[in-house]
Specification:
Layout (H helix, E strand, L loop, with lengths): L2 H14 L13 H17 L5 E9 L2 E10 L17 E4 L1
């Protein structure tokens, strides 16, 4: 089973148990990675009202880690998305 298949199984289990998740998309998923990167780059600058944001700041092992999450319910821009009756969302963290 590929790593992508593992992610789908993990996400399915989390959703079935009414949980939330955030899985990484790496450059080996080139099309999906570029679509997400392009959308959030555009939306953050041109239509920030379409995004929700969340920030965390953690101090651990003598360093401070800041994370900013951008969240969008709009996934129509994804060409390879699976069609589903369930509402999905896309998040990016940087």
């Amino acid at each position: 089973m590929s790593f992508l298949g593992c992610q789908k199984q993990i996400a399915k289990q989390i959703v079935e148990q009414k949980g939330h998740y955030c899985l990484a998309v790496k450059t080996n998923q080139a099309i999906l990675y570029e679509e997400i990167k392009d959308y959030f780059s555009y939306a953050e600058k041109e239509e920030p009202e379409r995004l929700s944001t969340y920030q965390t700041i953690e101090k651990d092992y003598g360093r401070i880690e800041k994370r900013k999450y951008l969240i969008s319910l709009e996934i129509d821009y994804l060409t390879g998305k699976e069609r589903s009756k369930k509402k999905r969302q896309c998040k990016i963290c940087h």
